[in-house]
User: Fold these one by one.
Assistant:
Number 1:
Amino acid sequence: MKVVFATGNENKLKEIRQITEGMDIEIVSMKDAGFYADVEETGTTFEENAFLKASAIAKKSGLPTLADDSGLEIDYLGKEPGIYSSRYMGEDTPYPVKNAELLRRMEGVADEDRTARFVCAVCYVRPDGTSETVRATMEGIVAHAPAGANGFGYDPIFYLPDRGCTSAELPSEEKNAISHRGKALRMMREILEKEPQVAGGAQ
């Protein structure tokens, strides 16, 4: 079964291919499916935005489609930046600038009030329009200073107390095992395994 994963991010494609390894599924990118447009994310939740992306591409390509939407929620800041994580301070603003601004806004806040989480919603839309959505989180706190070079985005300021480091300091295999996206994609694998084309081994 051919499945489109609605991303242009090679790291995400690699991760979903690793997680679906051994299944009768071929993961293709949006470009491979002939979809080059950006889907406007007008939803008010991670789940809605993931559905908007997956449904638009499934409709255009005629193929089952996966899409994710993810971001950082900081409780002290009213769950900002949330669904606007990638657009916080403008889409073209470098993440070191975004991270510095969030740390400035959290200056002087005690550890117990720095709780935060990464959220990932993954939506699967079939060609007939039916869909399934899963959600997973990775809990932590906002660090007092950025650290680590293994991650991207907000990883350098997301501290994991049980690991004693930021998510940008974790080796990629360990990060994928506990990350919000890794967990959500493994939940989605269980749904894909039940699809008739996969379960029956048909193409």
Note: The mean pLDDT is 92.
Number 2:
Amino acid sequence: MTSDLEKQGRTADQSVDRRSVMKFGAAAAGAVALASCAKENPGRETREGGGKGGPYDVAVIGAGYAGITAARDLAAKGWRVVVLEARPRIGGRTFTSEFLGRKIELGGSSVHWVQPHVFAEMQRYGFGFHEVPLYDLDASYIMTSDGKVHDVAPAAFDALYNDAFNKFGANSRTLFPQPYAPFTNPDVLKGDGVSAAAHIATLGLDPLQKAALNAELVLYAGAPTEAFSYTSFVKLLALASWDSYTFTDSEKHWHIANGGTAALAKAILDDSKADVQLGTVVKEVEQNAKGVTLRTADGQTVEARAAVFTLPTKVYPDIVFKPGLSAAKRAFIDNAEMCDGATMYMRVKKNLGNTFTFCDDPNPLNAIQTEEFNDDIGTILKATLGRQSLIDMNDHDAVTAELRKIHPGVEVTDTAPYNWVKDPFSKQAWPSYKAGWFQKYKDMATAEDRLFFAGAATADGWHSYIDGAVESGIRACREVTQKLAKEDATNG
């Protein structure tokens, strides 16, 4: 079995022991892929998109969904654009790979028609939805924090979880009457310091309700819920029309058909006239009254009138900014986010049917969802971990032991993990805000003269999703265009 992860790793490190890759399957290959990311210049590829070389009007740093959206839209307005991406691929924290001949999503995956920006991109390029199992469960389980597993009939599982979820977000419409203007109600600012755990404690939930709800929230937090902003999660519910069923449908039920997130990202970038450089690690940024100079790890210098940064928040300290970023932005970078999350797929020999499990913290596999099941393949499961540091995902025996707590005696034949925290160009999984820091996200989004900032963490809307990244790229294009057009009008 040779996965896309293995192929990516092989190009970067020919010395990998093939027997170890075969022994652990995609798990070892995932570790190899991470090693490939650590190379400063893993086989640069360059695409001349019509930018006609430098100096450019705009340099976009990062080719995740925020970056490629900004690049496409800026180039469409006639600006000369170059995209600098550290990885040897586009997509950022989305990552479509292959597992046992199937497309899998190791990063951002779920999309929905209530997410307007990504849905518009799917419509633009002709992508439909791929459905994964979620409803009509054959079995469902809740693991409480003490490790005890409760076999809960699916109807009862739905009832207890939905009741808990609805209580948690009962005031979502009041707090967020306009979800894309999240501070319309000043009570959001007052409540931002309240943690998700503190709010749960006020709801009078029974132990199974509390365990299921807390497991879900740990996933979004990427941390214990004592640290997680309660209001930031309620905003996501409000974005799903204040409806718990729609929210659940949006987060776990639908992927992008016909190639997944990678195919949609490629379609967006292919529609752009921007130049693209992969394997290009920006190390230093210097701006003055006339423009921005970017210096890369391999000694390249790129000149532009403006730059758009679309990096995961925890990566910014790896870049030297001259002059330095604002105190408010540095504070956000140092304190606001905390996501310790990861994703993995597992194949077991037995056909378990359509199952779903919530595992409360500190059990590491917080949500385990059947992706495919039949008597030929057995079962392919997707596990989402809020706290990857609780388990070594490349330890086959440790992963098997955790899964056997829920499904006794199962044989795990293959695994495919991806650890976003150990990816040097991510250092965190999906965006999440600590209690008290949700209200500061606009500090990260605020332009600093010729430097502009995008990325899902800066979005007004779906900040933990692809949709938020696309939204932020659209905003960045608007802000850059306003500045450059004003300069041209003044100088013209």
Note: The two ends are 61 Å apart (CA to CA).
